[in-house]
DNA sequence: TTCCGACAGTGGGGTCGCAAT
DNA sequence: ATTGCGACCCCACTATCGGAA
């Protein structure tokens, strides 16, 4: 199949805002791929959702700065592109920058202008065609003439869409039905929606709920198969070799085969959680694992059991999965949990968890199955929220659907000692289109110099904004040595002068430094 | 006809390891 | 030895479409 067919489909998908029309376009091209190039349906499916099947290629927008002149005619095939991407993935991180540049140059010189644009978006991961995983899933169902639910289930159990597309189009519902949970192969983790507080979370569920401690660490999916252990992150990256102490814990479990879901976290000597940055640095490092293990040991906590000794449990209710988990896991590797229908009791549990230094709680409906890969209503996370009144120091022009609007604001606090203003980070979150319109006008007025002159627009520090955030983290990027985690706008305030905004001393005290 | 669940998009800070400087 | 870059970790929030009520 020619790449130009993918590019043309992408153009059509981008051009319409109707999801059903997007699905039609994608399904038609998938069907053509099945007829012409059945061995590469998985690659075509990946391309149609604007991504490369290769996890990493070492190529990003910086390395695509200057491209060779485009080809006149569309001759590139999907197979050609896949071969190049495969070669790039194989040489990524192996000290062959010149080789990679040559592969990129050759590939792009064979592409037409529109194909170059598509390739760039695919490598950079910025397809922006209004169709990613979810819409693609519907297209696969349509093209294979199988139910959405069958595709969704297969994708969740297989972890990836490519092989599922291939099965759906070549073997239909029968082939999809053979895709099951496989011990050793990661599946998509179930995700949680969020609620502002405990009563709101409980209000979404009938009767008794389960409250679990939400640990501020790294999500971990663990597979045990006759003594062989594999560990995967939320995006299904294999991190087995990095976490030997976690492997040891799993080897000791009294199971032949199991798939567990949980979190790993670094604790201090008293069992209190260390900052997320400590756990994050440990799991990101592939240096000598035995040394790291001695320096920053990690503790796994499990909260779900998806398979046990030949039996899949994903469709069983949480209450039963939890019971089976408790039978095979020692007390030290299950975080505190409470089942209740009483709001006050739930609130006390939340307060206690937070007081002990944890991130919050996840409220779960005990009757529901494991909905892999979805941010379903079955799990609701609740975290404490802090707010500050800060000043807008500068603002950046937006991109994509925010093009032409002043979007991302730079946040400053007052330094009570020097009287100056100290930047604590940026945010673009929480803004409605109405707010974007308003702030684009407002910040044009406050601009120091020509607001159209550059990407970042410096402002007279006059506009006060109320900001919500999850916590304070150490920063080397900002002069105050700290930054706000997950900052988002609540509202602009005109009732408060800059002389009365919050101070860096307040923020430092909040962080406990 | 209205409501609401699912989805895509728009980016935030921190960290590591490797290549280039 | 230092810096730049790519990829990963954590993630909040709004707008929109289209099926459910």
From TrEMBL:
One of its GO terms (molecular function) is DNA ligase (ATP) activity. It catalyses: ATP + (deoxyribonucleotide)n-3'-hydroxyl + 5'-phospho-(deoxyribonucleotide)m = (deoxyribonucleotide)n+m + AMP + diphosphate. Residues 301-415 form the ATP-dependent DNA ligase family profile domain. It comes from the Bacteria. ATP binds at residues 212, 219, 234, 263, 303, 375, 381. Signal peptide: none annotated. InterPro entries: ATP-dep_DNA_ligase, DNA_ligae_ATP-dep_bac/arc, DNA_ligase_ATP-dep, DNA_ligase_ATP-dep_C, DNA_ligase_ATP-dep_cent, DNA_ligase_ATP-dep_N, DNA_ligase_N_sf, NA-bd_OB-fold. Belongs to the ATP-dependent DNA ligase family. This is Probable DNA ligase. It comes from Intrasporangium chromatireducens Q5-1. The lineage of its organism: Bacteria, Bacillati, Actinomycetota, Actinomycetes, Micrococcales. The gene is ligB.
């Amino acid at each position: 199949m020619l790449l130009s067919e993918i590019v043309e489909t992408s153009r059509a998908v981008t051009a319409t805002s109707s999801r059903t029309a997007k699905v039609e376009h994608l399904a038609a091209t998938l069907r053509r791929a099945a007829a012409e190039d059945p061995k590469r349906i998985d690659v075509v499916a990946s391309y149609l959702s604007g991504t490369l099947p290769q996890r990493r290629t070492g190529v990003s927008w910086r390395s695509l700065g200057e491209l060779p002149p485009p080809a006149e005619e569309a001759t590139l095939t999907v197979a050609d592109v896949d071969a190049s991407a495969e070669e790039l993935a194989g040489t990524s991180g192996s000290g062959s920058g010149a080789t990679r540049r040559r592969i990129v140059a050759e590939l792009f010189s064979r592409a037409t202008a529109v194909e170059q644009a598509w390739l760039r978006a695919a490598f950079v991961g910025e397809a922006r065609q209004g169709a990613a995983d979810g819409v693609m899933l519907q297209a696969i169902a349509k093209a294979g003439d199988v139910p959405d639910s069958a595709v969704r289930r297969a994708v969740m159990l297989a972890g990836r869409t490519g092989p599922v597309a291939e099965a759906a189009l070549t073997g239909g519902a029968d082939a999809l039905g053979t895709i099951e949970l496989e011990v050793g192969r990661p599946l998509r983790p179930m995700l949680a929606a969020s609620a502002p507080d405990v009563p709101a979370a409980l209000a979404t569920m009938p009767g008794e709920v389960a409250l679990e401690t939400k640990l501020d660490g790294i999500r971990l999916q663990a597979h045990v198969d006759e003594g062989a252990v594999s560990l995967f992150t939320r995006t299904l990256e294999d991190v087995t070799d990095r976490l030997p102490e976690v492997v040891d814990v799993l080897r000791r479990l009294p199971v032949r085969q199991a798939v567990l879901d949980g979190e790993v976290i670094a604790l201090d000597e008293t069992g209190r959680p260390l900052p997320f940055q400590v756990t994050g640095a440990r799991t990101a490092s592939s240096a000598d694992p035995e040394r790291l293990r001695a320096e920053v040991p990690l503790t796994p906590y499990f909260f779900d059991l998806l398979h046990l000794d030949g039996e899949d449990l994903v469709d069983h209710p949480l209450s039963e999965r939890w019971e089976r988990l408790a039978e095979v896991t020692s007390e030290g590797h299950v975080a505190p949990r409470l089942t209740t229908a009483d709001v006050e009791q739930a609130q006390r549990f939340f307060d206690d968890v937070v007081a002990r230094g944890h991130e919050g709680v996840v409220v779960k409906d005990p009757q529901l199955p494991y909905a892999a890969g979805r941010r379903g209503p079955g799990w609701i996370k609740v975290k404490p929220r802090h707010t500050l009144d800060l000043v807008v120091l500068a603002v950046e022009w937006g991109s994509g659907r925010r093009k032409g609007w002043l979007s991302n604001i730079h946040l400053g606090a007052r330094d009570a000692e020097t009287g100056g203003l100290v930047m604590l980070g940026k945010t673009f979150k929480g803004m409605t289109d109405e707010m974007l319109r308003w702030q684009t006008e407002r910040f044009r007025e406050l601009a120091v110099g020509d607001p159209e002159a550059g990407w970042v627009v410096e402002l007279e520090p006059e506009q006060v904004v109320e900001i919500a955030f999850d916590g304070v983290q150490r920063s080397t990027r900002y002069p105050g040595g700290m930054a706000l985690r997950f900052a988002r706008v609540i509202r602009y305030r005109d009732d408060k002068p800059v002389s009365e905004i919050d101070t860096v001393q307040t923020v430092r005290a909040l962080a406990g430094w």
